[in-house]
Amino acid sequence: MNYILAFVVGGLICVAVQILMDNTKLLPGRIMVILVCLGAVLGAVGIYEPFSKWAGAGATVPLLGFGNTLWKGMKEAIDKEGFIGLFKGGFTACSVGVSAALIFGYAASLIFKPKMK
């Protein structure tokens, strides 16, 4: 049942973003920034944590989850280290995911031949 819930929630997030892309003139990069910032804001207000516990990977994998991870990392680092944690916390919290994306993306580019248009 957890898999189905994650699939449905992740799909609904994607549907909402697709509707936003189809009905506005916002570029995809700006929409991605909006999603990351929205995830951070929802985490700051305390809404995203219960939502992600309920929805599982359907809420933590999309860009909303990335923004929430940045927020949690900054909050923990600020509590521990003070003002400097504002700059360090987000990088520390998401470094593994970003590193994995870069490494796997590079490995995929070596295995498959990308074609530029």
UniProtKB/TrEMBL annotation:
Domain of life (superkingdom): Bacteria
Keyword Acetylation part of the UniProt annotation: no
Alphabetical UniProt keywords: Membrane, Transmembrane, Transmembrane helix
Transmembrane segments: 26-47, 83-112
NCBIfam families for the chain: spore_V_AE
Designated name of the protein: Stage V sporulation protein AEB
Organism: Butyribacter intestini
Organism phylogeny: Bacteria, Bacillati, Bacillota, Clostridia, Lachnospirales
